[in-house]
Amino acid sequence: MTAYIQGRNVNLTFRPPNRSPVRALANFDIEVEEGEFLSIVGPSGCGKSTFLNVLLGLIRPDSGDVLMHGRKISGPGTDRAMVFQEFGLLPWRTVESNIALGLELKKVPAEKRRAVAARLINLVGLAGFEGHYPNELSGGMKQRVGLARALATDPDVLLMDEPFAALDAQTRDLMQAELLRVWREARKTVLFVTHQIDEAIYLSDRVMVMSKRPGRAKTIFAIPLPRPRDYEMRVTPLFNELKLEIWNTLKDEITV
Amino acid sequence: MADDAAFRQSFAARYRNPLLGTLAVALFLAAWQAIFLVVPFNPLFISKPSAIFLGFIDLIDSGDLAYDLAVSAVPFVLGFVAAALVGVPLGIVMGWRVRVGYALDPLMTVFYASPLVALAPLVVIFFGVGVGGKALIIFFLSVFPFVFNVYAGVHSVDRLLVNVVRSLGGSEWDLYRKVIFPSVLPYIVAASRIAVGRALIGVLVGEFFAASEGIGYAISRFGDIFALDRMFACILTVMAIAVVLTESIRFAERAAFPWRSER
Lengths: 256, 263
Description:
heterodimer; A: alpha/beta; 6-stranded mixed beta sheet; about 25% strand; B: about 260 residues; mainly alpha; MetI-like fold
């Protein structure tokens, strides 16, 4: 049986004008099961965000196959949606119409859009902020909008590119719990890129460690913590053993 | 009483900046008027504020001023609107389609940098002195601020927002409508502030060259017959219109973009 999402031998080199080419992905392999929460950790610039953009369909790899449902990904599609690190909200749109953006692009009628947006606004806890503009929101609230917008088109796969990296530590802890709650309700396959080992363990079914650039899959760790997860699990011996193990794998790849 | 004093103080404090500006204008006019008491200027060559004011009243009474302004307003509006309708899309395409930008940038720069007023006689030869010819001169003078401001504005479009719309399945047309155009709106407003000034120059130049009515024609005719009081009345009216137009655009700039305000 083939996996739900499959990357086979993916190679990608960036060739910026007037600079030497950068090899971002080298023989990168990945398999993701349906409904799974998989995190990818790796050193800065290892190509983990690049791979999400390949999956999203914004970047085409030089060689290798990226498949979903056994079909090759050749461009953006409504079966995948991204939550961006810097939120990417349109500043001239209110919370509600930012969330409805994907539906609008799919030509969904206005009435249906409003209904979906209203449901998601409640799901991510933004009731009362429908008419606010992004610059009136805190970082955490902006990313709630980003999450709701990604969920609005009802994709099968959520791609999350360091979504909480721009938030302060406390807000990040809260948003992680929120994400797990939303994930339980929405039941999506999630690919989550992060720098934080804690975050990866707490959220995921499996954690993939990537090598330094050019990025390859180095090791995959299964996270046997039971679900639903709660904050106390982060101070259990099992959690700390996993953290140490992942850190030991990761630290060889980090150059200061 | 104490409340009244506090109110007066806050009134002065609140409006200090515009009050200072008004005071300077009043002093300028007073000095202009006063200098005639000392120096015996020949009224054939220079006028004074009191005479200009009487000339102004006369022009309003006769309806001549309103008529000339109405005549000039038609090509002004046509030329300006056409400049916006052509300049904005052109600037957007030049900014977004890199090759179009490279191709047109030098040509546009030549037109923008050169004194287009020099072409006015040619336009008059080709199109006459009617509404069409005047509108064309106004169009040429005011289209380039739109082109270049919007062109520069497209470079400030946030690439992340482009990726967001693309990743959600947006087409090229969706990018223009939902990301690029809203991003350059502030640049369009800034452009129209510059373009209004140039369009007014276009009105006057067009009517100086050849016309039988309109505010520019009125200015040059009153000059020819040495009716300097009424000539100055017309000039000051044009100045006032220029100030009102640019200031109202500045005001609209602040009011029109609620998402930019920090609350």
